[in-house]
Design goal:
Blueprint (H helix, E strand, L loop, with lengths): L1 H28 L8 H16 L2 H7 L1 H8 L5 H25 L4 H8 L4 H32 L10 H10 L4 H28 L4
Length: 205
Amino acid sequence: MGETGYMVLASIIVAALFGTPLGIVIYLTRAGGVMPRRVIWTAANAYVTIVRSFPFLLFVVFMIPVTRLVFETSFGTVAATFPLGFVAVAIYARLTEQILLELPSGLLLAAESMGAGIVQTVFRFLLVEGRSGLVYALTSATISFVSYSTVLGVVGGGGIGDFAMRYGYHQYDFTLMYVTIALIVACVMLLQSLGTRVSRAIDHR
């Protein structure tokens, strides 16, 4: 549980710190956006699209040389979390872009009429109006991170998924495996409930 918690928490932090601004950049620089920049949009959008299109296990294997270069090993919970961070950024960047695209079109007009610059538009209009959706999207992304973390046992990441496979499935202890799966489901339901409550609490529309 501790290893799974580490991988998921690290992914949440990375997604929030890097995925949010990347999603905002894609939103702002798109054709018809506040500050269209084709080169920037193409690069940012390509990163998100390519990383999200990779089957996760293959992406982990693909990243092994880079992981070894950074951590001098590709095994262990910390090293295994490294490729998950890249995926977390791509997933949440796309979710952030989608949330911003769903905001009322008049919001940008209101910001412009008040003389707001790019930074003010982002922090005083877009993030304020989209905060509820962003929290809900982060909740959905977190559930995906829990699912992905169960795969990282293949590269020595450990975690509850690896525990279920190693001591449940491979040793034919199916009771242990089913109990572990039930625990994962319970954790996911708790995360979903918490995220929904927070999202509703900060939604003042």
